[in-house]
Every structure is written in structure tokens, then in C-alpha cells.
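Quick one - first record:
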Amino acid sequence: MVSREHVKKTMMRGARRRVLVLASSLSSLLAFGGVVAPSAHAGTVREGQWYLETMQAERMWEKTTGKGITVAVLDSGVRSSQPELQGKVLPGKSYVLGGEDDGREASDLHGTAMSALIAGGGQSDMQVKGLAPGVRILPVKMKMGLGDTSPIADGIRYAADSDAKIISMSIGSDAASVDDKHKAQLQRAVDYAVKRGKLLFAAVGNEGSRTNIASYPAATRGVVGVSAVDTRLRTGKFSTHGPQVALSAPGVDIPTVCEGKTGYCRGRGTSHATALASASAALVWSLHPKWTGNQVLRVLLDTAGRPPHGKVPSEYVGYGLIRPRENVLENKGDPGPPDVNPLVAAAEKSGKSSGKSATPTAPVTHEPAGVTGKKSKAKGKDDNLPWFIGGAIAVAVPGAVLVALMVRRARRKARVRRQQAQQSQQSAVAAGPYGSTAPMDPPYPQQPPQPPLPPHGGGRPPGGS
């Protein structure tokens, strides 16, 4: 005969199991719907900048902060009143039709966000700390029409004639929308800048999980095309891949300046990676002020974390993950000849008229974007989610209601999958001036899956001595 005490213990164990199942189901529902619950512990913007620790930024800042280097940011303008950037933004130029400002009035916060990633002062933990906080920013403001890259070409020439050593371009138009005339115009502007000793970085785009179409100016010979990796150092599935990729940098779960209650968001995109690659170059160049842009680039390629296997350059990460600490802290990397651009030399050696491919590759087959049921944000922006600061939200849902919600959500997901499968057969969607985006639907596997990049690279970059 079973005792009352045994029955009571059994019932209590069953109740505990039901509570655990309910909690687990609730957690699954939140993830299933793409909802991010605020952390139970207070968090800060600075704590969210995971890449600073990964790149050993604190140690590098003991030797250099990028002081003496100016980075020209071709974007939507830079808000000079942004707390992180006060006193860091120089008078620049606006190529917006009818605009007469000097680039320090932002049409939106994209350029301001990218500039903060490069040079943000981060005076408090609630502000963005730039990877190269000693850098000054030269804003070159523009608003491109689809396929019209004339403002970019003009902006590159303006920056080439300025004191800026690095030109950072978290912008682009896809290959399908850029005609031969504009491609040639961009190439002439880039060639001019390279001859003037400038180092140019550009976002390869966020179409990797959809059309994977090449973007300009990243696909212009002489420009360092930058792809994005996540916290596991794996290529973000949204990151466009192809021969235009030269380097990769952190570009997922990056705290940035944005509109909203807190003023900060968690973003992703090759735009973010480009800003951090530009800042990396500034750190190295500041430490070696007598080097040319070609030498700085060669060292960055030489010290990059190589893919563990497969050919180099890889179409996903190029010559590897950018690692300025290898030079700043360990003095690694051979600068080589001062007058040879390694990427241009590699393109000429291959016998091609351009070191980039203007032909879009076929989309990678994988689960269509948008299966969470959320619509992508407007084209031309990198994805941002509100950066929640502190506060836990207690949620209690009766078991029956929870099950009903989960069933409804599953049906909705299946319906969206069918719709997305049909949409994936349609023609490619042209990218906006800042590249198009896919919704935040972690995890971000590589396409196809590859091991994470190693902490140490090897081999020689192209065009070296």
C-alpha cells in the first residue's frame, strides 16, 4: 500500500516538472517568434561590444589609439553633436542635391553609427567605444539614386584630395543596377585615390542569403571588400560572398547609435564590419606613420586569420579575419614594397581587367529569409534591434493558452515558409544605397558551413616581396 507521504512527494515532483516544461515551452515560444527578452541583469552598450575583447583592444590602446589618422566616411553624413563624436568630426562635404552643409548634419544616423564604431570616445559604459578612438572623421555626405554611383565617385575623389588616409564606405549599389559607364567612373576614381596613397574599404553587401549579387564600390579593383563574421567568428549568412571579398571583420550583434528611446541598437551588417576594418587600418597606420597605404594593407592581409582549409582568398572571408593586434602587439607582418597595391597586383597577375566579379552568383540554397514571419526593414539599412538596458520581465502564461499559441505560431510559420519559397523563385531585389538586409534569425551559419577562423593565420598576401 502506498503511503500518503509517497503520494504527496510524487505530486510535488510532477508539479515541479510541469513548471519546468512550462518555462521551457515559454522560452521556446519566445525564440520561435524571434522575440528577445530583456536580460535579468543590467547590461551596458560597452558590455555588448564583444569584439573589443576578442580583438584585445584595451592592450592595443596602450600603444596606439589611431591618433594622427583621419578616416573619410562616405555615408549619410555624421552628426557632430553625437556624444561619442564631439570634437572628432571635421568639416566635410555634402553631395546631396541641394545640400549646402559640410556633412556634419546627418540625413539619418547610419553614417553617425559607422563613425562611432570607428572613433567613438565612449566616455561612459552607455556609449559606443570606437576601435580607434583617437581617429578624426571627415564626413562625405551623399544620397544615391539606384544605380547612380556618381556621388560615390565624386566623394572618393574629394577624400583622395583631402588629408584623410583611409576611405570607409559602408554603402553600395548592386551590380545589376550599375551600368558600365558608372563602373568605369568608379574605377577611375578608385585608381586616382590609390595613386594618391589612400586605403579604401567598402561593404560587400548583405545579400548572401538571397541574391548574393556583387555590390559597388566593393567590387571595384583596388577597394578592400569586407564581409561580416559573428561572435563565433563564422561568416554571417547574410554576408555577400565572392571574389570581391578581401577581408572579414566582426559584423553581427554590434551595438550602434540609432533612433529610439535608448539611442542605441544591436545591429548587424557588412557596414559594421567595414567600419571596424577601417578602424583596424587606422591603428596600424598610426603606429607606422611612414608606411604607405599599400604597406598597411599588405600587413593587414598578411596577419589576417586564415580559413583553416580551402583556397585563399576565400570567397567568404577573403584573406581572413582582420587582426590588427598581430602587428600592433606582436609587430608581425611584412609591409613589402611601398608602391605596390597587393590587391591590384593580384588582379593584374591573374590577367583580369578587374580584380572583382561583376557577375552575380546564384543564390545559395538554404531556408528562405523571413521565416520568422517578420518583414525585413526598409532596403538600404542594416538590421537593428532595440538595445535593451536592464530589467527582467516576468511572464506567466497558463499551459492551455501557451499550447494554443504555439500551435497557432507553428501554422503561421508553415504558411510563411510556403510564401517565402514562392518568393525565392522571383527575380532578385535590387539593393538600396546602404545594401539590403535579412531579418535577425540566429544562428548565422556559413554558406556552406565552414569551421570558425583560427586565432592565427599564415601564408603571404598577394603582391608581397
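second record:
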Amino acid sequence: MAIPSSIAKPLQGLTCPVLVPKQVDWNRDYSRMTLCSLVGMTDEQLATVDPLAMNLIVAKGIPALSELNIARYQVRVNALVVDFSRRYLPSVEKYFHRDPQTFENDIRFFRLGMIQRYLELEIGIEYNRDQRNAEHIWYINPSDLFLNGLVDTRQGTCGNMAALHVAMAWRLQWPVSLACVNNHFICRFDDGTVHYNTDATPTGKGGFKSDPDDFLMKEFELPAIAITCGSDLRALRPREVLGAFVALRARHCADVGKAQNADDLVVATEPDWLLARHLFPKNRGIYKNHLAIATMFGDNLFDPDEQGHPNSYARMLQSLHKHQMVRPGDFQRRIAPIIHGEIASAAAEEFFFSLKVNQ
């Protein structure tokens, strides 16, 4: 039996060239900038915003981090970049020129990897020790997810370790952004001609980790649709990066609610999940989390037998599924009305009944 091409040769991640600002202001004052002002910017305007500042502006929406001094962290990361670019990078580039084949014959690839090596060996950045082998983590401490925690303690997670790499690359005007691999963040270099992935989290080996797309698809069990829909293995646009940071905030707040067995705190994260979806609508992880929280939210708005309750949505899905279960020989005959919305409309009519307005 012939193997479908999509199985025989996995789809590769999509290219999405990173927006690089024409000018970078390392010392811009973000003390009065808010999440609302960030949301109102264009992609081009957001590309001029320091990813570190963007990350911490979102973090300041968490009560425990409301007093964060963004300028303080800018100064510290600025110093890292100056040391990296003026001292460290020139001292190690000789290794590339001795054996360029080891580094894809591309100085861009080498330099990208050196950020990880510098942060680990020179600065002492490492993955959180108490979370390395944990099967499940509740992010009760928001500093485990945001850049203040990584800069202060030199221990972090994929959420803030990848963000630090991006913040450094932004200062160097390198085309590097965040990328998603399921619920994991990596960095992705994409200048429109080549793309490279680096993972900031595997510390302790003194090198850097860069895996090709097909390996990551297999390792993280990514289906082809995760790529083609634009969710995973693609450099994020600035607005999507902002959405990813808002999702981190929502994750922390939801985990606090779960740890306290307080459903009201979990449900209270619905606006953040909704905003994250607005900013990064194609992300599958954000969609799944928002759908779960929105279902809990809807349970508080309607009686179980009312139209609009999640139960009525479940009935709609059951109806759609029932009508789409077709025998192979009936496929062409039965699929046409589904495509044209006749069956879908009938199945959804009950669910959306209460939204109709008589004029």
C-alpha cells in the first residue's frame, strides 16, 4: 500500500521572516506603557518594543509583580549584550572559521548558538533545578515564567529562557523570535532565506541545541495540521509574541486557582485567555485552554438546560458529528451539504437560537 506523502515526508515548519526594527532603542522608557497601549500598536510598531519590556509589562498585571522596575532589568540585559558582542563573540568566532562545516557553514547559525553557550557558561543560566524531572508543574510562582525571575535567580523555564534569547537578539537586530512546539517555547531564526531552531532549556552540557523541523515534529508528536494552521514551528510575529506572554500570565493565574481548588480563580482567567487568542488566534494550546475556561465560564452564566449553556454546545457538536459520519461510498454525495453549510446550519440552529433578535 502506498504511504501518503504527508506521512512519508513530514511537512516542514513554515517560514515567517522576523520583523527587525530599523533602529533599536535599548534605553527606551517603558514605565508608562501598558498592555492596552501594546495591543493598540501595529506589528511594525510592536517590533520596535523591547521583548523584555513587553514581557514585563504583561507580568506587571499580576499583583505580586505589579511593582517591577522594567528599567532595572533593561540595564542588566543591556550589559549582557554589550559583554557578549564586544568580548565573548569575537573570542569564539575563531572556532567557526576553523571548522565551518560543523556549524552549517553559516556564521549566523554559529552566532545564534553562541547566545545559549554564553548564557550558560559565562552567566550561569540554567533550567529550574526543582522542575527538571517533574512530570507536571503548577506555576504558582509567576517569576518562573517571566523574565524578572530568570534575570534575578539565573534559573528559568522555556517561557522565560527563550524570551531572554529573543531579547538579546532584538538588541543585536538579529531576525530571531519565539516559536511554539506544542506547549514548549523555542527560538527561531528566520530571515526569509534560512531558518534555524534553538532550544534554550537543555543546559548543563556546555553547548547549544538546534534541531531541524522534522525531528521536532516527531519528538513532540506534532501533527501536520499543527504546522499548516500556523500554530507551531513558525517564527512568531510581534503581536503573537505578546499573545504568548499574556497566555503565560493566564497559565500562572489558572494554576494558582487549581492549587487552591478555587474554581472562581480559574474562571477569572478567561479574559486573559480571550485576549491571548485575539493576539495569537492560530495557537492550538491557547485555543484549548481558552475553550476549557470558557466552558467553565458559561456554566456560571446559564442553567444546565438553557440555550447557551455548554451543554447545548455539546449537543451541537454531537449533531455535527452524527451527520458527518458517512460511508466511503457516500462521501461525495453526503459531504456537499456539509460544505455548503446546510447540515451545519441545522445542527447549530438550536445553539444559536437565543442570539436571534426580533426587529
